[in-house]
Each structure stands twice: as structure tokens, then as C-alpha cells.
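re: ur question from earlier - yeah i can do the single chain one, its not a big deal. heres the input i used so u can compare w yours
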Amino acid sequence: MDYYYSQTFSIYKNYGIGAPTMGQKGCVITCLAMILSYFNDKAFYPEQMLSWGRENGMLDNQGNTRFEVFCKATGNKLRISVTNNAQPGEVIYAVREILLSNGQKHWIIDHPTQPNMVIDSYDGKVKPYRSFNYTGRAYYYIGKK
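and the output i got, formated as C-alpha cells:
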């Protein structure tokens, strides 16, 4: 099953993440919700990720995400690294930072089942990997075999 979420979805785009809203700065929360959904093969929506993040200290008052806390949401079955240190046969869920044409930074995820495709957390659409300007900053969430 595919899990495509958009940070601008009308139901939660105005939810606050510290000072900003999901619609303004909810890309990481949206990416993490998609990863958790794929990992468990069960829908875990961005508003649920936002609530869990608040309860578990994953968010600061400016809406920044402490990535290392996310692993706790999987019972530490996923590990985080800024380099891809997966072993053969492991599943990789990658969150990548991109630079938008207006100069703002944004986060997307590698599509877990479609090679060379990504899911844009802004609109929840699948797009070619090469259509983005990557900053080189990535976090890999790596599942066990």
C-alpha cells in the first residue's frame, strides 16, 4: 500500500508546530509520518506524528525536529544515520533536504518501492528524483531485514 501525505492537507495544514503551522513547516513531520506508515504498513497520519512528536520531545518551540527521537516511534527498530550504512538486504527509508526555487529548504523522502522516485511532502505527489535541487543533507532510517 502507498502512503502519500501532504503537509498542506486542509484538515491539518493550520495545526501549530511551535510557532509555524503544518502547512508552513510541516515537511519533516509529514515525511516521518510516511516513513512510519511504510514501516508498519499501516496508516500513521501527519497529525498523529505531530501529536506523538510533541509528547515525546521530538519538536522544539520553533518547529524544528530532533530526528534522533523518531527512532523511538519504531521501538528503536529503525536506526538513524547521516550516511547510508545499510547492510545488504536491509530496507532504507531516506529523508532528504532540498532547496526550493525561492531559496527555502524543504524535506522529501525517497519512495520506498519505486526506484529513482521521491514523495514530495508538500503536495504528497510522487516525482522523479532528478527534479529536485539537493543540498546533500540526508538522514537515513534503516529497517532490519
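The domain at 22-143 is CATH 3.90.70.10 (Cathepsin B; Chain A). not sure if urs matches, ping me
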